[in-house]
Amino acid sequence: MGIRLTMAALAATALTLSATPAALAAEAGMTDEVTMTLGKDGTLHVVEKISGASGQLKRTFITRTRYDDSNDRLYQISNVKGGTLTGDVLTVTGQTVEYDVKGAVTPSGGIEELRWFAVNGWNQPVAKATVKVTGPGQVQNLSCFAGALTSAIGCTSASMDHGATQADFEQESIAPDQALTVIVGYPKGSSSGKPILDKRFSLSAAFTLDTVTGGALAGLLVLMLGGVALLYWTRGRDARVAGHESGKVDPVQNGHFSPPDGVRPGQIGTLVDEQADVVDVTATIVDLAVRGYLRIDEQPRQTYDAPDWMLVRAPNAPVNALLPYELALYQAIFDGRDVVLLSQLSGSFAAHLGKVRDALYADVVRQGWFARRPDTERTRWTTIGVVLVGVGLLATVALAWFTTYGLLGLALVIAGGALAVGGQYMPAKTAKGSAALAHTMGFRQYLFSGELGDVPEQHRVELFSRYLPYAVIFDGVEHWSRVVASVTGNGHQADNLYWYHGPAEWDLSKFAGSMRTFTQTTSGAISATRQFRSL
After folding, report:
1. Which of 249, 335, 382, 438 has CA atoms 20 to 30 A from the CA of 305?
2. CA–CA separation, 132 vs 134, rounded Å?
């Protein structure tokens, strides 16, 4: 019986001993034997022999770390064998993995330092790791850290051989979120390796003011000043011609009205401010009335009623004698009807106003006052400026993101903005246009001088009425309306002008107020239409 027990015990012991290697291997977990060789070109060649892993093995490399306040450091992985690399993730397909690393060497003082995360990012714990490092020179110093990436805790062991040609490192129990970082120093010049840096974006760095960006900004300033000088020259040319030919103009020839250079109110308005706007249309309506193409009848109203006027088509008016812009306006007002209230001017009237504006711009070019339509000239330069702003914004984003020259893009934005704004002043008059402007200003001086001149009394109503549309352009409606009323008014309730009728109990003493209200209301009605909202 004792012999049987002894034999059973020996058999059990034998089975236990025979099972120990496999059991221990299963309990030991993954091991990683790493051999690293630094070449003279600064490339680190790495061979890893892996054992004891279970399941699909993957490793996520650390390929970017902070270098300094402005840059990140990159590590480039290439020439992978024994696995496939997708982005930063290595999927192991064999027991041995090889790859090359660039960017792991840093010159520092009298040495160059190799730093690499020899073991990190495995998707399962590493029970034990050993690292052997050889390089193009003797080892000057070595160190290692284990744990988190920023850990300052040393690894299990670090040593070198007696000839200082090989550095050896060991570390046990490396978790998936931990790393074994090895550092080995070699004599300066042992390899040509250096860090690979990637500029980190920051607003302060992106818009650095240095020689290049400062010079570009200075150049922009010169360009803008040059543009201002050119603008002054083109506008100053108008002023010089106007100044040379300016002087008081007498619009009375042989007792009849004769505007300077035959210019009509709408033409003057476009000539003066280089825009076909609401005041030009309002003045033209008054001018058509004064010249006998329509009559303006002020409507009776109660105290709190809004003022209104009836525009009445003159029978047998010679509309064929009208200029294109006048005819377009005349048709817009009546549109096949004989009378219309000013308050009813909407719908089809708005549709025709675009033609009036185009005809006015075409007219000033046909007169030879501008080489090109002022609105086209403004639009062209403004569009170029807006496009330049857009290009500048894109350039600013690109330059700021990839370089430190973001200010160069801002320079384009500023230049484009200046051009877009300056485009409003780009239309320039010809010499003929400048001369016409000078005569126009002389006419304005006459209107506001208060001198009525030697005009026969029987002609004064018609003559001074002809002045009134020009006073609308020059913002002198109330002043000149008083002049008209003072010449013809006799205080009777039935007093009217041949082109303007007031309601009952109205006389010419109220004409100035009526005309002021009429022009303001007309301009407001035109401004509310679609084509003239932007003017």
Report:
1. 335
2. 7
